[in-house]
Specification:
Elements lengths: L2 H20 L11 H15 L3 E6 L4 H12 L3 H7 L1 E6 L7 H6 L10 E5 L5 E4 L8 H18 L3
Parallel strand pairs: 1-2
Antiparallel strand pairs: 1-3, 3-4
């Protein structure tokens, strides 16, 4: 066997593996079955007696990434953890899951991220209709917390 071929193959494999490890997947699973994920979250929500927060976004969207970070580690993280079952729905470049957004009256043309809040029985309780979260980066952690504090306080 040719040693240079073996070494070259090994280096190429290492480079590909390294690049794959450095390429973040992003917060949205592009291969997920959004409808099945929402149904699973609704089942969990019934047991937990919590509403479901459906978050529409995409991995290329900086505001979507900001919102996801705020949900995980920002000031709003404790509120989100105790107040909702969260499902993230990938919309790609506005080519995926458009029917899901439409079902919950979320006009994606107003911007992403966008959200719908569902009762545990699937009834729509709230939806962003005017791009309220589309500037999540400008809203910052405090603005996101303020927004969701108001959403949580709405009568159900």
């Amino acid at each position: 066997m040719n040693k240079s071929f073996t070494l070259g193959s090994a280096l190429l494999a290492l480079a590909v593996a390294s690049h794959a490890a450095d390429t973040p997947q992003g917060p949205y699973d592009e291969a997920a079955d959004a409808k099945a994920d929402i149904q699973a979250a609704l089942a969990q929500a019934q047991a937990a007696k919590l509403p479901v927060l459906v978050v529409f976004g995409a991995n290329w969207c900086g505001d979507c990434k900001m919102l996801d970070t705020a949900f995980k580690t920002g000031a709003s993280a404790p509120l989100m953890a105790r107040s909702f079952k969260i499902v993230k729905v990938d919309v790609g470049r506005f080519t995926r899951n458009l029917d899901v957004a439409e079902r919950y009256n979320v006009p994606l043309k107003s911007g992403i991220p966008a959200v719908a809040v569902l009762a545990a029985d699937g009834k729509l309780l709230y939806a962003t209709r005017g791009g309220e979260l589309a500037d999540a980066r400008k809203m910052g952690d405090a603005g996101i917390l303020d927004f969701f504090t108001k959403v949580v306080a709405q009568p159900r």
